[in-house]
Amino acid sequence: MVRTPCCDKSGLRKGTWTPEEDRKLSAYVTRYGCWNWRQLPKYAGLARCGKSCRLRWMNYLRPNIKRGNYSKEEEETIIRLHESLGNRWSAIAAQLPGRTDNEIKNHWHTTLKKRFKHKPSVPKNGKDNPRDPIKRGTSKETEFETKLNNHPLINSTTPPLILESSLSSPQPATSDQNSSITTDNTIVSSKDSVHTNNKALLEAYEANSGNFWTEPFFSDSCYMSSDLLLPMMDPARYEAHEFPFLDGEILCPFGFYDQLQGLNF
DNA sequence: AAAGCGAGCAACCGCTTCTAC
DNA sequence: CGTAGAAGCGGTTGCTCGCTT
Questions:
Q1: Residue A84 to residue A92: CA distance in whole angstroms
Q2: Which residues, including other chains, have CB under 8 Å from residue A199's CB and lie 6 or more apart?
Q3: Nearest nucleotide by C1' from A222 CA?
Q4: Distance, angstroms, CA A170 to C1' C20?
Q5: Nearest nucleic acid nucleotide to A88, CA to C1' distance
Q6: Residue A182's CB: how many other CB atoms inside 10 A?
Q7: pLDDT tens for each residue of A231-264
Q8: Do residues A98 and A221 make contact, with C-beta atoms less than 8 angstroms apart?
Q9: Distance in angstroms, CA of A243 to C1' of B20?
Q10: Which residue is closest, via its CA, to the C1' of C7?
Q11: In Å, how far are A25, A68, A111, A158 from A107, measured between CA atoms?
Q12: Are A46 and A246 in contact (CB under 8 A)?
């Protein structure tokens, strides 16, 4: 099968994202959602491939991302899940709200793997059969999810959902960093400048314009069907040069962009 | 103070899977 | 059913920063 290159090698930026690029991507996805990752950078005014935009949004800019040090509960959950699932980082991340697969993967390789080197795990659903349908997180994996949720390791007395458990039975974090509670009751590290800033930003917006969570343009676009967005304003209908809400204009009507510029990305 | 080194993390790459036609 | 395009995933790379010498 012919595979289209993920990146047009001519003129597309690579490497670390700049604060300006972050602002553009945040503003665009918050406003219009991720309707098409490949087309999105064109309309958002970004010289990036869609894949890069998606990764940046999913792993860094998305709201409610929990960053910083892992709690003991989180680490135990990762270890348990890794024993049962193997390197299925997205499936593991699904049990740790606020954590991304990339972050969990990094944490495993940098910290947990060394700590548990002495007892190598034998994943039940390891890499030996990559085509095994239960290995991937898909929209049709209800059977697997049922098994997963009923798995004794996962459905154990230790709740996999750190959100609630962190509050009801606070565990000492693996570091001495201070934590704060976000609007969705997640615990975040004080080092988490981006998330903390996002929280401040969201609160600022809420204070200015009422209930943030009832404002469709600003709710987490990942949980909003693109069908709800596109009929209102479908950027794909416009050519890049005539699309009416590029870059900073996207959020200016709400004073949102000015607040974004105050972030220390 | 400067160089070397290693850990941590952000981002890239290539592959698989999903979905629309 | 086959094909093509898009999305998602996991492995890997390479940069940054802090620590040590």
A1: 10
A2: A182, A183, A188
A3: C7
A4: 36
A5: C10
A6: 21
A7: 344 444 444 444 444 444 444 333 344 444 444 4
A8: no
A9: 26
A10: A37
A11: 26, 11, 6, 20
A12: no
Smallest CA–C1' distance to C13, residue: A15
pLDDT tens track for A98-118: 899 999 999 988 888 777 654
Residue A93, nucleotide of least CA–C1' distance? C9
Rounded Cα distance, A27 and A33, in Å: 10
Question: What pLDDT digit, counting tens, does each position of A50-87 carry?
Answer: 999 999 998 888 888 888 888 888 888 898 888 888 88
Strand nucleotide closest to residue A67 (CA to C1'):
B9
The answer to whether A217 touches A209, Cβ cutoff 8 Å, is: no
Local structure of residue A173 (DSSP, 8 states): B
Quickly give A94 CA vs B19 C1' distance in Å: 23
> What's the predicted TM-score (pTM) here?
0.62
Distance A264 CA to C9 C1' (A): 30
Tens digit of each residue's pLDDT (9 = 90 or more) over A119-134 = 544 443 333 333 333 3
Whether the Cβ atoms of residue A34 and residue A220 lie closer than 8 Å to each other: no
